[in-house]
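fwd from M.: "can u put these together and see what the complex looks like"

so here's what she sent:
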Amino acid sequence: MSLIVQKFGGTSVGDLDRIQNVANRISKTLKAGNNVVAVVSAMSGETNKLVSYADNFSKTPAKREVDLLLSSGERVTASLLAIALNEMGHDAISMSGRAAGIVTDKHHTKARIESIDTTNMKNVLDAGKVIVVAGFQGVNEDGDVTTLGRGGSDLSAVAVAGALQADLCEIYTDVSGIYTTDPRIEPNAKKMDKISYDEMLELASLGAKVLQNRSVELAKKLNVNLVTRSSFSDEEGTLITKEENIMEQPLVSGIALDRNQARVSLCGVKDRPGIASDIFGALASANVNIDMIIQTSGHEGATSVDFTVPSGELTDAKKVVDSFIANKEIGKAEYDESISKVSIVGVGMKSHTGVAATAFSTMSTENINILMISTSEIKVSMVIEEKYSELAVRSLHSAYKLDK
Amino acid sequence: MSLIVQKFGGTSVGDLDRIQNVANRISKTLKAGNNVVAVVSAMSGETNKLVSYADNFSKTPAKREVDLLLSSGERVTASLLAIALNEMGHDAISMSGRAAGIVTDKHHTKARIESIDTTNMKNVLDAGKVIVVAGFQGVNEDGDVTTLGRGGSDLSAVAVAGALQADLCEIYTDVSGIYTTDPRIEPNAKKMDKISYDEMLELASLGAKVLQNRSVELAKKLNVNLVTRSSFSDEEGTLITKEENIMEQPLVSGIALDRNQARVSLCGVKDRPGIASDIFGALASANVNIDMIIQTSGHEGATSVDFTVPSGELTDAKKVVDSFIANKEIGKAEYDESISKVSIVGVGMKSHTGVAATAFSTMSTENINILMISTSEIKVSMVIEEKYSELAVRSLHSAYKLDK
């Protein structure tokens, strides 16, 4: 008998019919001889409604109050799902984050899970019951309700699965798994059966929106076998697991595209010791995330520095750069938002050479100019002109035979 | 400095504007130099919505689940009100029933408060903060959330006021207090300044809907000074307090009308020992509440028995009576729903004679036939034909000079 944690997000429990569908799915898992702990989000729209209510009274509501407010949404879903399961003849009980033993730190609205006291859940499971846990929430050492921030219900599910040493943690969303690339760009994209935590982390940070890195990192740390699958079909999903659990490592697992980048080119940067550190230190203080950096030695005591930032942080980056221009430490700056970053991810790269070379030659064949390059142990990223995005993704997908 | 518990019902917090009004009112009380503990209901309509959600999945949802579901409504109001108060510069924090230390028995959906651990509330009050308590809920010894049933938020407020030995417990509703009679019937009805617990209990059970008896009984037991007043005006309300606190006891405090009664007349009841006990025992087993009973000795070994029941229980009463008719223990039965009960309530009756006589002579002057009479230490009730209801109320109101 396996213990399976099943997490259902806001869309999956978006209305009463969908909650009934979720109950049907859990019932099926139970009848197949498994134990189930379900973790649920608030019905879609509920959290936004509550946030707008709070916003009506204050633009800066106390975070402790916001947490008590928001935590109610998941509780409603949890008790409704338990009621639906009971009606189907299953002995189900709902639990708040507190009842499930989820203890967090005191950072209201973005608390971190510190520990899970599984006594209560284990007793209920031993009695043969199904548990429905209200996701996204816990309780701090003062006894105050906390919430876990964006993607919080996924975190609840992974943490509960880890604490209970569940055999599987299934994350149900509106997509059926992780694909070799975005199927809207490359219709031949294939759903992967398995992928390692590290590949998933690279893909997620490169724009695959199915899972947040925080949840994948926690699953890796707690050694939780994570499956993402669709709550609207019976299709098998994608297993995210330890590298050792994946027998045949493909050279390349997937191609990711991030259109949400901008390039900053600084010319005439004063060639004095510590200038790069000053610029990037100032950017970090302004909460600007730098990705790739290229520095080229110039002539006549000045260098050029190029880097990329998320488009949303370009305004903040410009302010920092302008202060250096005002101090005459930078000659001039150019900004380019019409770029994108295409990346090849695969653990197979560790032990194979020539993976990057294939990427470069593919770009060359398609006459796509590579503006910047960065590599890691399991990733090659290239910045290109945005207009070539789809062409680059499709030709790389084909070059690495991901459609086979 | 006084400690005032202020309770706001569903209508008073019915939308965001009204929650802001409630915050304004609390702010005013604070600025007048008082400490405040607010107790709030769910926004009107919310609880019904959640009940209908549960109903969608099951006609007999587990009560434990219903309690977790319903308790979320009051939490939402509590945190929103705390946010509104914070924005106005008051240091306010919201508390669930659990955080407020409200411990109940295990009767989910109609739990009784067993104790209140005031440690948490007292610490917060000592720190000079306002507390907003989610009404209607507590937690049982297993740590499960419970709700208190109809009128539960009033009970929360009275219990909290008792436990904290508050100077006053104000119950805000949409009416401005307790009137000498229903102002829709008698426009000259006056709002009472003060009334004793016992009078309030009589008036409530006779149809004055402002407060439920459960709350008044608890206030009496805990010696809580209760005030009912309107959340939509600044008018003073009615103080419900110990009889000793009311200096001038009026002879009669109020006239109550209950249209919701039916009369059952049994003829040819077999004159054997224990027959009355059998009939009323069977009615009690069928959960029919009997109010007045008149038994008249008959002739030829049979008696007549008349009694009144709430109209809603007449069908059940008929079933019981029919079984006695089938056994030939009752000759025949007549039912009359076109009656009403008019009552005179006043602690002054205890020490004055002639109060009932005035009532009877008033009815006689108006040519209203009295069908049944019952009296208690502080009440005289008369059953009359329903069509005379308003006339009876108005002439009694005037006879006892309640309009002066």
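replying to her w this: Chain A has two domains: 3-173, 255-399.
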